[in-house]
Design goal:
There is one protein chain. By secondary structure, the chain is mostly beta strands. It is 0% helix and 27% strand. Strand 2 and strand 3 form a beta hairpin. The radius of gyration is 14 Å and the shape is globular.
Length: 71
């Protein structure tokens, strides 16, 4: 599910999933926005980032926001 990618320029080590609550896992969700596929949308109210896909779908990630993210 999460892990290093081969031949990455800046590799990140695999995540120990036993230390991450599953509510923070990325997940595919329905998305009713008007943005085109490939667009990133940050919902500052719910702390979610959406990568808009095709067919009213998006990949949702939980994110932390700094003060500048609320502007």
């Amino acid at each position: 599910m999460y892990g290093p990618l081969p031949k990455e320029r800046f590799p990140v080590p695999a995540v120990n999933l036993s230390r991450v609550p599953d509510k923070f896992y990325r997940r595919e969700v329905e998305y009713a926005g008007s943005e085109r596929p490939g667009t990133l949308v940050v919902d500052t109210q719910t702390y979610h980032l959406y990568l808009v896909g095709d067919d009213n779908q998006a990949m949702r990630y939980d994110v932390g926001l700094g003060r500048a993210g609320f502007g």
